[in-house]
């Protein structure tokens, strides 16, 4: 087999496309050589060899020795030098290079091939010898550390000692003779630590370094990095052996790193840093202050040091040409490394550069406008999830932060404010202009007004689909949920975490994009929905097939969603409309009533409110489709739980408070999520759904008449498990429609459909579709019921499941395509078989998750519906899914 691929020096065997075999660095070195750029010659030992190495007890195949020897001989020819030759030594670097970039995780050895004899030879060939001995001491330290496991501090102590003795402050103060003395001490230290002398045989050095780089694939750092970035261990790393070029031979030498465009802003300007008379690791180590590449960069960063553009104008111009050539060739912003040896430029690396979310957007739009990529490609290049960073305030990256706890990143954005522990106080303080963070063990629908008034919400319990998380995302409030280490004590109005106590009124900052909780106020940066954002979203809209709707029930959310491009409402949760202080009493009256008549009396009070809610929504949505779900949650969520609340209901209804208490106990359920909720309420108390349907139709008739645009409401029945339920409730809705038509004298169209939230409903979708004109997959409940996992409690133990690799993702965040997804695919198929063209959508939290949206496209759903702030993400993800 072929294990070794050459590059540079006129004999390049690899290409950029061979990343899997040659690793990113090796493939791109080959590509640059193919482009005619100045790449020091070298060769790559393939990732397949890494696999062989680990499969064979860290041994090499027999033919490797000859292949490496031939490759070294080629380098000797190209450089007119010899590996290990005291008079004219060839020196090489040995570096790792995996398929995916793993910066700093694996090992590198520079200046390999130096020993006592070759260092002397190099010294004779290069001026005063300082460069040669400086390189040798660097090599001894690096090789001993990386290959032989001798700790850095042994060498640092020796060098510090020499500098102290001579009264030097800088490394550059040392002469050739000084370095020779340091080297003698370094070698002694190595022999003392290892019991054997530092290896003088250059072949032994080479194979030692190659083995160390392959070995570093399995070091603890690299393993952790792979786990965090989903990189499989089976990929392996390649090893690149390359002729050394020296940036540390004198004042006409330099080394640097650069980006072809600004990686923080995306601006089309060359951006980078370099150091004169230095070797690569010096730039990274931060011992000396690097200088800017360009005059503009120098001015922008208020640097006193001259730029490369001024110091080495010719080499700079050459580098700038390389920059343009690489960008055009790779059609993306590049991150490059270079070295200048005696005024000659050498390229050591190129790769697609990492960038911030705003930079990614600007670069993609600019490249498309420059004609370098097409619009589809620009749309593909933006990570939809990263748009979050553009829609919400973010923490100022330059600011200090004191993180005290971490929870789930439940709703993006950063917010600071005074800590407050209950919703009423949050509202009162916000009313007088305070910024507040509402801190609760968990939230319930009764906290909505406080959540709305707060800048951010922090809970110590609950997962990504907990009440706090769902509501905060809907409102666009920052939220950190389930910060389990926080102990919140409502009585003393304080919370504590690892010895830190935070009182009512203290200021904290939360970052809903990372889940971090910080002490004090950390400055934030406001989002700017620039022209680039609008441009890219426009391109995405022209590509996608699926419609994007929003989950919204308040006028504010509906307006926000339209501003973000929503094309209708996919889920209006009517129960959220019942918590308004002006209504809750009537709601409680209705629930606690012991007869139909009592319920109807209370419902009559609610009906005008409901109708007005729908008038508002229909008006804002101006003819776009609006799906309204009839009452869904378990009734206990509305029950009065304090004595005062019970007394209030008793008074309003003229009943004995004890009777109210009795009724509350009677309505208590052991397992409310599987209890009397959803359409089961409609089955028991059809008058509730009747009132809601009447309010919907009356509002639709009114808005259609007033605005002239036809409103076609979609009435949705939740938690259906049988066709019979739907038949019965559809008849209730149809009767209400007839009633409104008769009383208004207007006829109108409407649809009646159902949510698919139970496995049985998915399985029986064929007959349910006989009654349903549309399906909306309620994947929050469908995930809960398919897994048998409580959406309210799973947050407490799901991290264990993710740690142990049982779940790759939280199934409440990213759709379980093989389980829950199979039910969706099957229901879609059976529904369509009964009713071709049946309208299909999704309205669970997954409707705003890019990976889940890809799945929705694959089963051909008509739309996804998500919270307002996720609408842009969904627009982009739907476009990518369609490409
Ligand atoms: C669902 O279950 O996915 C859904 C959208 O309804 P809710 O979250 O209100 O139960
Ligand atoms: Mg549901």
From TrEMBL:
Question: What's the top EC group for this one?
Answer: transferase
Q: Does the keyword Lipoprotein apply?
A: no
> Which Gene3D superfamilies does UniProt cross-reference here?
1.20.80.30, ATP-grasp fold, A domain, ATP-grasp fold, B domain, Phosphoenolpyruvate-binding domains, Phosphohistidine domain, Pyruvate Phosphate Dikinase, domain 2
Active site feature: 467 (tele-phosphohistidine intermediate), 843 (proton donor)
- What domain of life does the UniProt record list for this protein's source? Bacteria
Q: Which cofactor does it need?
A: Mg(2+)
Q: Where is the PEP-utilising enzyme mobile domain?
A: 434-515
**Similarity remark:** Belongs to the PEP-utilizing enzyme family.
- Biological function: Catalyzes the reversible phosphorylation of pyruvate and phosphate.
How is this protein named in the record?
Answer: Pyruvate, phosphate dikinase
């Amino acid at each position: 087999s072929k294990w070794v691929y050459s590059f540079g020096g006129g004999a390049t065997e690899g290409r950029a496309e061979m990343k899997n075999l040659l690793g990113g660095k090796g493939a791109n070195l080959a590509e640059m050589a193919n482009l005619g750029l100045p790449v020091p010659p070298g060769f790559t030992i393939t990732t397949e060899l890494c696999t062989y190495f680990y499969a064979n007890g860290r041994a090499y195949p027999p033919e490797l020795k000859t292949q490496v020897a031939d490759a070294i001989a080629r380098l000797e020819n190209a450089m007119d030098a010899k590996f290990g030759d005291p008079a004219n030594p060839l020196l090489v670097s040995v570096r790792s290079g995996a398929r995916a970039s793993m910066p700093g995780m694996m090992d590198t050895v520079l200046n390999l091939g130096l020993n006592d004899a070759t260092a002397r030879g190099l010294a004779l060939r290069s001026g005063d010898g300082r460069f040669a001995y400086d390189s040798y001491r660097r090599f001894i330290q690096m090789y001993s550390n990386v290959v032989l496991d001798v700790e850095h501090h042994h060498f640092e102590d020796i060098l510090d000692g020499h500098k102290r003795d001579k009264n030097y402050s800088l490394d550059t103060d040392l002469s050739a003779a000084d370095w020779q003395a340091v080297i003698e001490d370094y070698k002694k230290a190595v022999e003392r630590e290892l019991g054997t002398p530092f290896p003088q045989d250059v072949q032994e050095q080479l194979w030692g370094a190659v083995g160390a780089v392959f070995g570093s694939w399995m070091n603890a750092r690299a393993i952790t990095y792979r786990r965090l970035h989903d990189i499989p261990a089976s990929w392996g790393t390649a090893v690149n052996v390359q002729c050394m070029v020296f940036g540390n031979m004198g004042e006409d030498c330099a080394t640097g790193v650069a980006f072809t465009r600004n990686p923080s802003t995306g601006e089309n300007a060359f951006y980078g840093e370099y150091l004169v008379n230095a070797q690569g690791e010096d730039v990274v180590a931060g011992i000396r202050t690097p200088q800017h590449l360009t005059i503009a960069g120098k001015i922008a960063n208020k640097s006193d040091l001259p730029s490369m553009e001024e110091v080495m104008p010719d080499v700079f111009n050459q580098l700038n040409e390389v920059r343009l050539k690489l960008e055009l060739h790779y059609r993306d912003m590049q991150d490059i490394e270079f070295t200048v040896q005696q005024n000659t430029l050498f390229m050591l690396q190129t790769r697609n550069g990492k960038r911030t979310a705003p930079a990614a957007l600007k670069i993609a739009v600019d490249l498309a406008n420059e004609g370098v990529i097409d619009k589809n490609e620009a749309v593909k290049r933006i990570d939809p999830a990263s748009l979050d960073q553009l829609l919400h305030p973010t923490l100022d990256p330059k600011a200090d932060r004191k993180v005290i706890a971490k929870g789930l990143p439940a709703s993006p954005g950063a917010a600071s404010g005074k800590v407050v522990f209950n919703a009423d106080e949050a509202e009162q303080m916000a009313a007088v202009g305070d910024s507040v963070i509402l801190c609760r063990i968990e939230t319930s629908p009764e906290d909505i007004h406080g959540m709305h008034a707060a800048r951010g919400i922090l809970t110590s319990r609950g997962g990504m689909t907990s009440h706090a998380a769902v509501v905060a995302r809907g409102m666009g409030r920052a939220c950190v949920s389930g910060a389990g280490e926080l102990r919140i004590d409502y009585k003393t109005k304080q919370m504590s975490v690892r010895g830190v106590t935070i009182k009512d009124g203290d200021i904290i900052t939360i970052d809903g994009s990372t889940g971090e909780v910080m002490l004090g106020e950390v400055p934030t940066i406001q989002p700017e929905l620039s022209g680039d954002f609008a441009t890219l979203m426009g391109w995405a809209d022209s590509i996608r097939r699926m419609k994007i709707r929003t989950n919204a029930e308040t006028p504010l959310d509906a307006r926000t969603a339209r501003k973000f491009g929503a094309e209708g409402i996919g889920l209006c949760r009517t129960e959220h409309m019942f918590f308004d202080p002006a209504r809750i009493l009537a709601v409680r009256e209705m629930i606690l009533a012991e007869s139909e008549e009592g319920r109807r009396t209370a419902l009559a009070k609610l009906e005008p409110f409901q109708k007005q809610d729908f008038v508002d929504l229909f008006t804002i949505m101006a003819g776009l489709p609006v799906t309204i779900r009839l009452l869904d949650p378990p009734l206990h969520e509305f029950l009065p739980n304090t004595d005062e609340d019970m007394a209030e209901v008793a008074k309003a209804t003229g009943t004995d408070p004890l009777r109210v208490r009795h009724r509350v106990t009677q309505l208590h359920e052991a397992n409310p999520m599987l209890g009397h909720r959803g359409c089961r309420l409609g089955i028991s108390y059809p008058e509730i759904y009747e009132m809601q349907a009447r309010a919907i139709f009356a509002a639709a008739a009114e808005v259609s008449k007033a605005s002239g645009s036809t409103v076609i409401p979609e009435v949705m029945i939740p938690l259906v498990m049988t066709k019979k339920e739907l038949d019965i409730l559809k008849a209730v809705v149809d009767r209400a429609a007839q009633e409104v038509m008769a009383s208004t004298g207007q006829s109108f169209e409407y649809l009646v459909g159902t949510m698919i939230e139970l496995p049985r409903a998915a399985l029986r979708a064929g007959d349910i579709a006989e009654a349903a004109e549309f399906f909306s997959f309620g994947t929050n409940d469908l995930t809960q019921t398919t897994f048998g996992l409580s959406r309210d409690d799973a947050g407490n133990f799901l991290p264990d499941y993710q740690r142990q690799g049982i779940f790759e993702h939280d199934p409440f965040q990213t759709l379980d395509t093989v389980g829950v997804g199979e039910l969706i695919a099957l229901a879609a198929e059976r529904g369509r078989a009964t009713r071709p063209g049946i309208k299909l959508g999704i309205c669970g939290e997954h409707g705003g998750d890019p990976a889940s949206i890809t799945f929705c496209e694959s089963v051909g759903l008509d739309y996804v519906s998500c919270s307002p702030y996720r609408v842009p993400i969904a627009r982009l993800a739907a476009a990518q899914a369609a490409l």
